[in-house]
Amino acid sequence: MAIFGAVPIPNHPPERSPAYRKLTRQVLRRKLWLFGIMNQAKIVQILGFLAKWALKLRFPVRGIIRATVFKEFCGGESLQKSLPKIEQLHRLGIGSIPDYSVEGLNSEELMDETLVRLQEALTFTANHPETPLFVFKVTGLIHSNLLEARGNQTLTDPIQLQSYQRGQDRVTTLLRMASQLQCPVMIDAEESWLQDPIDQIALEASMEFNRSKAIVIQTLQMYRHDRLDYLRHCLKHAEEAGYIPGFKVVRGAYMEKERDRAGLMGYTDPIQPDKSATDRDTHSAIHILLQHPRAFICLGTHNRSSCVWATELMNQFNIATNSDRIIFAQLLGMSDSLSVELADAGYMVAKYLPFGPVDKVLPYLLRRASENSSAAGELSREYALLLAEQTHRRQESSVANRTSSAA
Ligand SMILES: Cc1cc2nc3c(=O)[nH]c(=O)nc-3n(C[C@H](O)[C@H](O)[C@H](O)COP(=O)(O)OP(=O)(O)OC[C@H]3O[C@@H](n4cnc5c(N)ncnc54)[C@H](O)[C@@H]3O)c2cc1C
Q1: How would you write the pLDDT of the chain (407 residues) with one tens digit per residue?
Q2: 270: CA distance to ligand 1 center in Å?
Q3: What are the backbone angles phi and psi of residue 142, rounded to the nearest 5°?
Q4: CA of 253 to the centre of ligand 1 (A)
Q5: Is 93 helix (H, G, I), strand (E, B) or coil?
Q6: CA-to-CA distance for 130 and 113, rounded, in angstroms?
Q7: What are the CB-based long-range contacts (under 8 Å, 24+) for 390-397?
């Protein structure tokens, strides 16, 4: 039994989530209404389709989106406007990870502009203790077609090579700034056909900037069957080159897309054969990284069992609960019960805090909504907890009513 190690969180979640116990009646009602709608896949599909067209045709629907899904899953239209949410999370012992969620950019000018927005957000992150980490997607700075061509070694056209170099310079500029500010930055993992050059950039930047602290944190998608070997390769590289490795461990977000493409193009599916293989490798990666003496690890998951497993290992390896090299992370508006439970137990926890103009973050919001509408989705679990909170309150108030009328 460990003496200094973390105290693991229990195997079963509390019946009544502390995250929802503190909600005002109005906020609880809003959440129940929203999550109730999103729990129905067909309605989500139809509303998503309508929202996209309404914005394209300039119908005045921004206000409705802003007051509903945007309010639930995003910080605000800018980081400054996200401050109330950042402070609200901070009061619960939860950090925020600013995530500029503008997607699908395809011109040099828009990518140059994205770099400026990311630099502003990085400066904000470095200057606020409530925001312990920063995150970005390489496809916001290098066009995905160029990344794909680079990955399969078909990037030979001089103009395309020049564009790729310009994109890579944008990424390096951001990471160099992070190093100057000593602000850790996570690089999101994307589709497998884009990932090799992203990994290459991350590895080279880690070697350059992770000298006294993990500034560059790369992402491992454990639904890929080659990632454990890749992790071992990276750790060996870090040891030989003498830098501190940093990883975000996730299961992976593009499973259907990956399987469809592999099937269509006739190459070996990069995804694990089943969910249990993904779970096994996720847990092996956590085990390897927690055993490492210096590695930084961000565990990006809504899966409670994986968090329980990690806290049990922290206990076994005598790692302190509030160790600053281990952070648990969830997305804003998702698994709030888990985030609060971990924070209450003293673990480092942070939420991805998406921000940006309403119409620009719509693709992100639609992904969250449809992810949540699947039967096995996190939202079903959260919805059940919200309903349980409502039932508790109703029971409490009917007991109170009976007591007062008896008196
Ligand atoms: C803070 C944070 C950061 C994230 N960053 C990234 C990122 O950079 N890149 C990225 O791709 N995703 C990212 N994600 C999303 C993540 O990869 C998962 O899609 C999502 O969190 C669901 O997985 P889970 O561990 O929470 O829970 P679970 O519900 O336990 O797992 C669901 C996941 O298991 C895997 N899975 C399901 N069925 C099967 C099957 N039949 N065979 C094999 N595998 C299966 C899939 O990956 C699926 O998403 C991030 C998530 C969080 C919370």
Answers
A1: 444 678 888 888 777 888 898 889 998 998 898 888 877 766 667 777 777 777 677 776 778 888 888 888 899 999 999 999 999 999 999 999 999 977 667 799 999 999 999 999 999 999 999 999 999 999 999 999 999 999 999 999 999 999 999 999 999 999 999 999 999 999 999 999 999 999 999 999 999 999 999 999 999 999 999 999 999 999 999 999 999 999 999 999 999 999 999 999 999 999 999 999 999 999 999 999 999 999 999 999 999 999 999 999 999 999 999 999 999 999 998 899 999 999 999 999 999 999 998 878 877 777 776 665 554 555 677 888 889 999 989 888 877 777 777 76
A2: 15
A3: -130, 130
A4: 5
A5: coil
A6: 26
A7: 390/28, 390/32, 392/16, 393/25, 393/28
Q: Quote the ligand 1 centre to 306 CA distance (angstroms).
A: 12
- Does any ligand 1 atom lie closer than 6 A to the CB of residue 303? yes
- How far is it, in rounded angstroms, from Cα 253 to Cα 313? 25
Q: How far is the CA of 252 from the centre of ligand 1 (A)?
A: 4
Name the residue with tokens 């709608």. Answer: 37
Regarding the beta carbon of 271 and ligand 1, being less than 6 Å apart is answered yes
Amino acid at 346: G
Q: Answer yes or no: are the C-beta atoms of 69 and 365 closer than 8 Å.
A: yes
Q: 249 and 297 in contact (C-beta within 8 Å)?
A: yes
Structural domains present in the chain: 18-397 (3.20.20.220)
State if residue 337 touches ligand 1 by the CB under 6 angstroms criterion: no
3-state secondary structure of 12: coil
Question: Is the Cβ–Cβ distance between 349 and 90 less than 8 Å?
Answer: no
- Helical spans, DSSP H, in 92-191: 108-127, 144-151, 158-181
CA 363 to ligand 1 centroid distance, Å: 18
**Positive/negative CA dihedral, 211, 213, 218, 224:** positive
CA-proximal residue: ligand 1, atom 52 (nearest): 300
Greatest pairwise CA separation for the chain in angstroms: 87
